[in-house]
Write a structure and sequence with these properties.
By secondary structure, the protein is of the alpha/beta class. It has a seven-stranded mixed β-sheet with strand order 3-2-1-4-5-7-6. The chain has helices spanning 21-25, 60-65, 87-92, 110-117, 144-157, 178-187, 190-193, and strands at residues 11-15, 31-37, 52-55, 70-76, 96-105, 160-169, 194-203.
Length: 205
């Protein structure tokens, strides 16, 4: 829904695209391309979509170097899985002609904190992940305020500035709980009630 609000968006490069679901939500006229790691295995791969390239980790740099620029570059729930939080972000910014869009989980979300206090491990940081590939694990506990500052500083070096931030509220299946969630959003900070943020960085004129 955020992408569809951006004017004259004709091409999208989706880094860490998984099964390429974003490509199914865009207008047919929009040129969609996706890239993901062949060994990530976080989402089911979609080898039937010719718009997606699954790359081995050692070939990712050369693949990005040979990629065509796009109006918007997406990194949706990707950076928290990388060892160097801003490295992939800065490596990919030059491919963006107008926008870079990053989504991150808010791991200070109040329900996640309460689950930890109740003895339930965070699924992205659990010790149960020890035997799984690195891509499954979050390398950092994301504090949205710190992430915003770090990414904005990196974006500035490449001629981009943070234009918008969208918080993702938790949505209850039970409609009777919705008024309680509405009150929580009104009476507390987004750091407590948001499950994550979407940052829209725009190239400066």
């Amino acid at each position: 829904s955020i992408l569809l609000q951006l004017p004259d968006l004709k091409s999208v490069l989706d880094l860490g695209c998984g099964d390429g679901v974003v490509g199914t939500l865009l207008p047919e006229a929009c040129n969609y391309r996706g890239i993901d790691l062949s060994n990530a295995s976080i989402y089911e791969q979609n080898p039937n979509d010719q718009r997606i390239t699954y790359s081995s980790p050692d070939k990712l740099d050369s693949l990005l170097a040979s990629s065509q620029p796009a109006d918007a570059v997406l990194m949706l729930d990707v950076l928290e899985h990388t060892r160097e939080f801003t490295a992939l972000f800065e490596r990919t910014i030059p491919l963006a002609q107008r926008y870079v869009i990053v989504s991150l989980p808010n791991e200070l979300f109040i329900l996640d904190r309460l689950r930890m206090l109740a003895g339930k491990e965070h699924p992205a940081h659990s010790l149960d992940l020890i035997s799984l590939p690195e891509g499954f694990k979050h390398q950092y506990l994301i504090n949205i305020a710190k992430a915003r500052k770090i990414l904005s500083t990196a974006a500035e070096k490449h001629g981009f500035a943070l234009a918008e931030e969208w918080q993702q509220p938790v949505v209850a299946k039970n409609i009777l709980i919705q008024p309680l969630l509405w009150m929580m959003r009104k009476l507390s900070t987004a750091q407590l009630w948001s499950t994550g943020s979407v940052f829209v960085f725009k190239r400066r004129a």
